[in-house]
Amino acid sequence: MGKLKRERVLADNEARAVTRMMRISPQKLNLVAAMIRGKKVSAALADLTFSQKRIAADVKKTLESAIANAENNHDLDVDALVVKEAFVGKALVMKRFSPRARGRVGAIHKPFSNLTIVVREVEESA
Asked: What protein family does this chain belong to (predicted)?
């Protein structure tokens, strides 16, 4: 008499990982996400490993989580995985204020982002 099982949003040959509340603006995070979109997983991991961007290590961690989800939860072949989607969403924005000249105030916005990575297993064409 429990709840019915929720339908799976993704296809059977896909897996995803989500990281929420990353302390970086969505615009900057999207630059790194665009770097791995559509690539094979091994090439994407290599790009993130040698990237100069600070957030690349966190994006790599999320990608590794998506790969682990594909392997352990959905029995997909790791060597045939491709990054299908890597998209960024806005999270909250912390607002801080800094005193400025003549009694005014300067607003400081500290944005957070959400990152979702979807990997798909593709069959190798001969």
From this structure: Belongs to the universal ribosomal protein uL22 family.
- The structural domains of the chain, with segments of one domain joined by +, span 14-121
**Which two three-digit tokens encode residue 112?**
């957070």
**Alpha-helix runs per DSSP H in the chain:** 26-36, 41-49, 56-72
CATH of 14-121, one of 3.90.470.10, 3.40.50.720, 3.10.20.310, 2.60.40.420: 3.90.470.10
Going by pLDDT thresholds of 50, 70 and 90, the confidence category of residue 3 is confident
pLDDT digits (tens, 9 = 90+) for 49-67: 999 999 999 999 999 999 9
Amino acid 126: pLDDT: 54
What is the reported pTM?
0.91
